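FW: tagging you since you asked about this chain on Friday. Here's the raw sequence from the shared folder, copied in full. Didn't touch anything.
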Amino acid sequence: MQVLRATEMGMCFGVRDALHIASQIPDPTQVTIHGELVHNAQVNNRLTQAGFRKAPEDDRQSPPETPMVLITAHGISNAERGRLRTTNTRMIDTTCPLVRRVHDAALELQAEGRHVLLIGKSGHVEVQGIVEDLNSYHVIEHSQQVERFGYRRLGIVCQTTMPTDRVAELCAQIRQDNPQADIRLVDTVCDPTKRRQRAMLDLIGKVDAVVVVGGRNSNNTRRLVQLCQRHRTPAMRVECAQDLQPEWFADVNTVGLTAGTSTLDETVDAVHQALESLSLQQPQKQED
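HL: got it, structure written out here
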């Protein structure tokens, strides 16, 4: 079995920068991570072992017990920043600049008097941080959520990790269902996401199946799996090499390998090595 790696995969610069900032903190016991720094169990376990406190991602309302709070790469709303300031907590901000761009675009559209449509996953921490500063909005992930919104002016932004083909489909449907509206789209899908999606599409044409490495609750990892499925290519999602099952590859001659943006390089390399070992264990196919 041959293993082909995607030309673009794994950690993006936003995640690497956040981890670098965290690694430079002299006393992690004085810092509460405001949610999950990255959606990766291995990384989060290491941060806990280093001494960082962590506020649950779905419940961050309690006052921090430490003098410092680390804002994750996913960002938070201006309203949440204001709440943290009232606690006299020093903020260490690792918000990805491409996530900041979505916040700025959404607020700009709102300032123009537009009802904001955010194409993304409802409840995701990045999405939640954006909509908390909006007065009039809808979050749209599926076509069933598109309707005639009844607003004269609409503005569209996207969660940074949305598949570009899904964004195009939903935008087309929004325009079709709202012909009376003045619609402005700001494409805020981040460039690393676009490059990884293009690399995945290139990989799909060369393999029988794809292994996608990433955290269980990583949205961008989930999107890579969905991209495979939309193109009728089997996708196996794993967090680490130990998750691989030999029977998955019984009829696979060439397997692709990619990873979400929160996945450590060492984890990808370990999965690659495990796939190579499985290949050596496979019985050789007899020529006719």
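FW: Residues 2-9+191-281 form a domain with the Cobalt-precorrin-4 Transmethylase; domain 1 fold (CATH 3.40.1010.20).
HL: agreed, and The two ends are 18 Å apart (CA to CA).
FW: great, closing this out.
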